[in-house]
Amino acid sequence: MPSSPLTEPVFLVLLSLAEQPRHGYSILKDVEGMSAGRVVLSTGTLYGALQRLLRQGWIERFHEDESSRDRRAYRLTSRGRKNLQSEIERMRHLSRLASLRVARKEA
Amino acid sequence: MLQLYRALLFLYPHRYRREFGEEMTFVFCETRRSLSTTLCGRVSFCVREIMGLLAGAFCERVHALTLSGESNSIRRLNMRRFPTSTITLMIVILAGVALTIENAHTVQVKYEPSAVSVWGTMPGFFTVGFGLVFAIAAAVWSILFALRRSGMHRLDNVQTWPDQR
What we know:
The complex is a heterodimer.
Chain A: H1 8-19, E1 22-23, H2 24-34, H3 43-56, E2 59-63, E3 72-76, H4 78-106
Antiparallel strand pairs in A: 1-3, 2-3
Chain B: H1 2-9, H2 14-33, H3 39-65, H4 69-77, H5 84-111, H6 122-150
């Protein structure tokens, strides 16, 4: 269970890897696409986030054998997936709560 | 721009650079290739990359400095020679203290020359204090080093009860 809410870039990186394993550039583009161009990560920010997630054991790095450039890709671990689901649940709860409060105020 | 990017990568700790440096450069080149041709887009890309690298390098440096307690204890166990950086730091601190005393003495002489001065004894006092602390630290370090050499720390691994066969 994540101790504190995830930042938006980290959340989007995890979300990007939830679908399929990706390498750095692919994550960068996917995050940009998911946020409709609102979140554009620099390589420094992306690899800082990846390094922290690797350290926490939320993602893992592996060699893409089929790649001619021998690039490394990243994928979610079961721990990372569990934490991402907890975060989604937390957001869902917040969103539900916010909708209820706003609706009550308007009524 | 690529040269600048590579140069900025040197701000990162060596270990990080070895692990991610090539990959980061590759992603940077790919991103640059897919960039729009407008000047505004290029400038914002450069600024974003430079700021990202600076912030990332700072975070990694801070992380390297504040390693976990476990890693620090491993480092301490691995000491093989007297840490010269400690001596240098102590000498610098002593020089700073001596300089401050000297400045304070000058101020006192200037504004209140008739007051009884204790500044004359201060440098000697601090030098003796420094010497004592240094001697104690050297003695403690020697004892630890001797214990390490004699293999006392391996006592933890000694089997105190024989296996029952």
